[in-house]
Structures are given as structure tokens and as C-alpha cells.
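User: Show me an example of a complex going from sequences to C-alpha cells.

Assistant: Sure. Here are the input components:
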Amino acid sequence: MNYIKLSWRNLWRNRRRTLITVASIFFGVVLSTLMSSMMNGTYQNMIDMMVKISTGYIQVQDPSFGESRSVNDVFYPQPELIESIDKTEEVTVVAKRLESFALFSSGADTRGGAVIGIEPQYDTLTSNLRNWVSEGSFLESGGKGVLVTSNIARSLNLGVNDTIIVISQGYRGVTSAGLFPVTGIIEFSTPQMNNLGVFMDVGAAQELFHADSMVTSLMIMVSDYTHVNRISRKIKDLAPGLSVKDWTELNPDLVNFIEGDRSSGNLMIGILYMVIGFGILGTIIMMVAERKKELAVMTAVGMRKYKLSLMFFIETLLIGLIGVISGFAASIPLIGYFVNNPIRLPGDMAEAYLQYGFDPYMFFSAAPSVFINQAIIIFVIAMAISLYPVLKVKKCL
Amino acid sequence: MQVLELKNLVKIYNDSEVKVKAVDNVNLTFEQGEFTAIVGPSGSGKTTLLNLIGGLDASTEGEIIINGTNIGKLKPWELINFRLFNIGFVFQAYNLIPVMTARENVEFIMQLQGVEKKKREKRSMEILSAVGLAERANSRPAKLSGGQQQRVAVARALSTKPKFILADEPTANLDSKSAESLLEIMEKLNKDENITFIFSTHDARVVAKARRVITVEDGHVVSDIKVETDIKS
């Protein structure tokens, strides 16, 4: 009889006890996968939202721009550079951006905000701003129109087809001002984002700031954000003399928020796994205690102790496996449902998310890592617990 | 041919404040094919002596030499291997592995020895037939009577044709019919396979079948009688 078969039969000697242990693992796995999925999904959504609308996954900038945020620290993006970045594996798009600050005026009202020059033709691959246009229409490539975020539009009493005055300091101190027709109003789901300012074609922004053909950044999107580091390194080689930053460097507040939130989530998951661990340990202690005589007999008739240890290790692992597999069987459809139907956060929590500029939803992720990590953790717990019978078996006979 | 020699064997238990000399300077030899009963009152040291011979316990002094090997000098894992290939055990409480069928219990030691599956299956069925349990080969111990379980234990001990079998009170938990039947089986196997049997027992039926009776009292061998009677006669 092989050891797996023997261990399997041993496991079901006390069916009720094994089922209770499996149930503790089952609930632990369901809760921890759900929690892990929710954390990953929500963070992914935050990253997607912030990164797509504001920075992109990677940016190429003038080295001084990060500190100064000044329109004086612009650079001329060589077509060869754009082409070579565009050809880099996993880069989906390279888009020019020219950003600065300005005063917006209409009638007697004035507001401050950001002017963001974008390439409208790449919008669907980058910020997807057209999804947030609540009135009017999206920008045209090479056009003079602008999109105004809703709070700015409201405070300036602006509507579609009105004219907005933009006043700022241009490249190298030149005074810049312009009149722009409002083609659309943007209404983001988060109030903070609605205070942002205006979006216009990058050509119009270059004209406004007297920064012909210059950009403050090249915004780069990639197909898998987890590979950003690797792609970023490749781009650094292509852009000597320029600064290449990934989304974590461009959004330190977001990273801090996620890390802080993840720590408390991981603490909860850690407590869950401690409960699971002690559940398995309790079962294994009982299994060893009630079989001391049998173990002595097995050793007496010639079974080497490492084989007994192996048998207990397999038993521990099998308990873990049954719990994990049944836990996955329950959590996969649940997660599948929540991926398509994110949960809206209630009251204060929603407010807190909105203040940070995030969608007030709990999003879920079905990434393989959510499940693989749980399996690895259970395996490690089983390995650690199997040390107990190994030590006990050493003492028998 | 001599298979076992005990030289100046002493076992002292120091567990409590009082030292107990369970085995006191025992010197014995056993020949191949002997059918020996070790008798004596409770606490006389029979089981301790058997445990020392089987390497289940370590002696305080003296030597145990089995087929020329001093088992006191073996490392723990060497001792386990030595037992595996040389000694069969039959315990008072049967001690079958409850999650295995009768046949799997019999095959267990052969499997530990690395005997290939076909040979194991053939031998286990042979030996189960010899103890009259071929039809119960696929039953687990819980489904067998005490006598049947002890017969499976004997079959397990005999399956690998060890040099000798140590049986600690094998009939103690059996009714007289089962005990008689078990003894007959062991006698037959002793004769057919020339395997040495050493029993510790209180049971007069075992003593009556034995061809050598060693009496132990307070850890001493007080008598060692060879019964020169052929089993057949």
C-alpha cells in the first residue's frame, strides 16, 4: 500500500474530526481568497484609474520636471525615441502630454487648475476620457476645443459651446493666454477629480504655452502593470539624459495608501491563517497521541521513522489540500460574481474613498495569484505543522 | 544451528526512585526451529526479556547475539532494519494496523522489505490460507474476531520467513477454541518452515505444546527444560 493511500485512510479514521478541520480550512480559504481578491481588485482599480487619467504606467520626462512641475522643464521628443519606445515589448501606446497650471476665467469668475494637453487619437488606449464626457463631445485631434471638468465648469458657469479664457506663464516666462471653445464637460465619479481643470489637444497646449513641439512627458501604457519595472529599465536604455519614472514614483501617495491598506488586510489574513494553523495542529496532535502504540508497533516490525514522518506529512498535506480545494470550489464562483458585480461601499467609507479620489466600490480580482498565494501559504503551514509528528515519531521506540 | 544467544543479560529500570532489576544475568541460547515457552508469574520479567531479544528495549548490561550480530551495537536505524529482516512479532493485543485489510497487514512487512507486488500478493494469500483466513483477506481488523485478528498477526509475522518469531502472550485474549486453533497453526508453521518460536505466556495450553520451557522469576532463569517429545507423537 503506498503512503498516500495509507495516509488517506488514516485521515478518515475519525471522520468527524477530519471534517471539522477541513471545514476550518475551507472557511479560512474562502474568507482569505475573498479578502485577497477584494484587496487586489480594489487596488488594481485605484491604480488603473489614477494611472490612466493622470500619469500612465511609465513617463519619460525632463529630469527637472519631477521636482519643478514647470513648463520650462519640457523636452523635445525625438520621433525615433517615440518609435523605439513604441516598439518595446508590452508597450501598448506612447502618448505626448504637455501639462501646466493656469487660471481659467469666464465672465467675472476665475478659477485655478491644470491644463493637460493630450493626443485625442490615443485616448481610448490611455485615459479613456471620452467615457467621462457628460455633456458635449470629445476632443478632436488638432482641434482648438477643450474639455472642462464639471466643478470648474459649474463655478465658472460654463456650458458646452461657451468660451473659456486660459491665462498662464508659458515656456521660458512668456505670458500665455488664449480663448478656447468648450466642446464638452467631464464628470468623473470622484469629486476631487472634477476640480482638475481643462483637457485640450497637445498641439493647442503647445501653442498656448509657446512650447512648439515640446512636451512635459511621454505617457506610456503597458499591457501588464506587474511588468512595469522590467519595461521601465528597457526604456531607460532608450532615453539617455531623460528621466524615466514608473507609476509608483509618479503616484507616491497612492502607493502609500495601498501599502497602508494592504498591511491591515494582510494582518487580518494572517489571523485567519493562524486560526487555520492551530486547527490543523490540534488535529495532528490528536492523531499522533491516539496512534502512539500503533507507531511503536510499526517501528517494531521494521518501518523506518522517516517513513512514519512521511506518512504524517502526507496526512497533514492532504487535510490542507482538501480544505484548499473545497475552499477554492466555493470562492471561485463567488469571486467570479463579485468581479462582475463590485460592491458599493456604504456611507463614511464611500466618502473616505471619494476624498482620496477613488471609486467608492469594492472591486474584486480573479488573478491567479489570489489563489496560488493561498495554496502556497497552506502548504507552508502544513510543512511547519508536520514538524510536530516528525519530532514525536523520533521519540517513539 | 544456534540463532540466538543471550550473554549475562541485565535490564534495570530507573524510572522511579527504586531501581527494578527486571532481567538479572540471563544466559540462554536458542537453536533454529525451537518452539519455546518462557513462563513465570506476572512481573517476573518475561515480556522485558522478549522486548530485549526483539531490540524493542535496550539492555543495561550483557549482549544479545542473533545470527552472529550483537544487536546492542547497532545504530537505531540499523536495528529497525535488522528487525525487519530477522524477527517477527506477535503481540498480545494483535496490534494490526486498523486501516489496512488482513491481506494488506500481511503484505505490510514485505512491502517494507521492498518485495515486489506480485510476490507479496502471492505470499500473503499463501500464508492467509495457511492460517485459514483466505476468505477474509479483504476484511479490516475491526471486522474480524479476536482469534482471526491474532491469526492475521501470526501471518504477518511469518510472511517474510524471519529467523524467529517473538510472541508475547499470543493467546491471552483468545477463547480456548481460538487459542487451540492458533497454536496448531503455529506448530505447523514451525515445523513446515523451520521458524523458531519464542513465547512469553501464562497459558498452560502453550506450555503443553512447547518443546522447551524456560521459567523466569524475579528476572532470573530458574529452570530451562527441553521436552524431548516429537510434535507428531
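The lines above are the inputs; the final block is the predicted structure for all two components together. Chain A has a mean pLDDT of 89.
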